[in-house]
Amino acid sequence: MKLYGSTTSPFVRNCFLVAAHHGLGESLEVVRIDTAGDRAHLQAMNPLGKIPVLETDDGEMIYDSAVICDYLDTIGEGDSLFVNEDLPPWRIRTLLALCNGVLDACVSRTMMRLRTPDGEAQSPWWMQRWADNVATGVKAMAASLDEITDHKTMASIAFVTTLDYLDFRMPELGWRTDYPDMAAWVDEQLAQDLFKSTDPRR
Ligand SMILES: N[C@@H](CCC(=O)N[C@@H](CS)C(=O)NCC(=O)O)C(=O)O
């Protein structure tokens, strides 16, 4: 299998962490792709032009990241990350959607900032809208923290990758000050080898 992506993408990181949980790391070749430069190549695999894309050994292209995570979970050998005695599967998927929505807003904001560094072509309205979406999303994550800390699930993985991405790309948000309990839990998780080896700053 090939996972097309980049080391900075939190969506790719989620997929990689699911694969690693299931002992699929060896059978997964990670192929770096530049979303701006390799656009035609990427669109041929995913018409939406986004990473990650998973190419299965049968040549099937799977996107987006939530679907890739689901797929890897079904072929893996470890305990399912979408099945848990305390959290129904729909709740795990809703919390994953919450995290991915926060990431969508943060990624859009980051792309706008990086592509228009002088700020001239930026839309202040959209920059504010994305910042609001991130803030209300993180507030909802903090309110759900007790649901996810006791078990390793897709939701707990997504909480960590999402909040670490905010530290990386939007440090001015200051979520750690507003939610110290969540920050303490995230730091415990980030000390684990798998999170360390997938740090987007590396
Ligand atoms: N909903 C998608 C989001 C993926 C996404 O936004 N990926 C970004 C990189 S982090 C991307 O490929 N952006 C390129 C573009 O939009 O042109 C998923 O979960 O896979």
CATH arch. level architecture of the largest domain: Up-down Bundle
Distinct small-molecule ligands in the complex: glutathione
Q: What is the helix content?
A: 55-70%
Structural class: alpha+beta
Morphology call = globular
Low-confidence runs of at least 5 consecutive residues: none
Q: Might you state the CATH topology name of the largest domain? A: Glutathione S-transferase Yfyf (Class Pi), Chain A, domain 2
Strands, count: 4
Rg: 17 Å
Q: Tell me the strand percentage band.
A: 5-15%
SS summary, helix count: 10
End-to-end separation = 24 Å
Q: Please write the CATH class name of the largest domain.
A: Mainly Alpha
Q: Provide the succession of SSEs.
A: EHEHEEHHHHHHHH
Instruction: Describe the largest sheet.
Output: 4 strands, mixed
Overall pLDDT score: 96
Query: Strand order within the widest sheet?
Result: 2-1-3-4
User: How many domains, as an integer?
Assistant: 2
